[in-house]
Design brief:
Radius of gyration: 26 Å
Order of helices and strands: HHHHEHHEHEEEHEHEHEHEH
Distance between the termini: 51 Å
Structural class: alpha/beta
Number of strands: 9
Strand content: 15-25%
Length: about 300
Amino acid sequence: MKIEWIEDFLALIEAGTFSQAAELRHVTQPAFSRRIRQLEEWLGVELIDRHSPRLSLTPHASAYEDSLRNWLAHLYGMRSRIRADATHGPRAILTTQHTLTVSYLPRLLRHFRVHAPQARLQIQSSDRSDCIRDFQHGEADLLLCSEREGQPLFPDSEGIERVILGSEQLIPVCVGDRLGQPLFDLDSDAALPLIGYSPDSFLGEALATPYLLNLQRQYDIEMVCETAFTIGIRELALAGLGIGWLPHGLIEADLESGKLVSLLERLNGPMLIVACYRQSVRGAATADQFWQLINERPPAV
């Protein structure tokens, strides 16, 4: 099987006709048709319904179109990584959740650039659960994540090292009125609009009790939105949709500028720990350099 056959097949889907696809691929139409046939012979199935007056994929082709695209992208990505590693040396892989990618990670990367400008690092930003899984499976050398206070991810796990980088609180916030006061009056009888986290998300579980429970006991709550995306909650809070809990590092500038007003004194919020992990028995040698920097003089959370 040749990679160009996959490229031909995807070009045919995009072009819509054999003649236009052959032109895109800079070959004659007979040569292009032969290459599609060769791909079909290698797969052992027909990809094109040649009885249809228009270009039509068979069910097998339609079912696996996305898989072929993803496979091709993965192959080219692997080629790029191999070339880069051969040219510039190995790199470490750090995986982190989306919220920290926006709030704390930029400070950490600036720290790395100053103290280890030649060391190579790849960032993988995912959902928190995916980051933990990738780290456990050895697909990342370093894991940067938030934890609930007193609840480390891997307590007493052999071969896994942990360093605490700092702590930050989830702050209940909303937009302010013209006088800089909270738009939503906690002393009124009106229902409080709440922008909440999905119950099964990490932050949703951190807020469930006693914070959200106390809020429901004291106030009439209207859940106007529920999502696992912290960045989305910030944007909705800035739009005046309701009250939401957000990590301090994410909204520090918004609080200083007055775009968001803190309700922490009235509603409180959980404290989160920002920690970094590494598996000491495996991983790129480059990870040792980053790990040393994280332990010696990390930037404040």
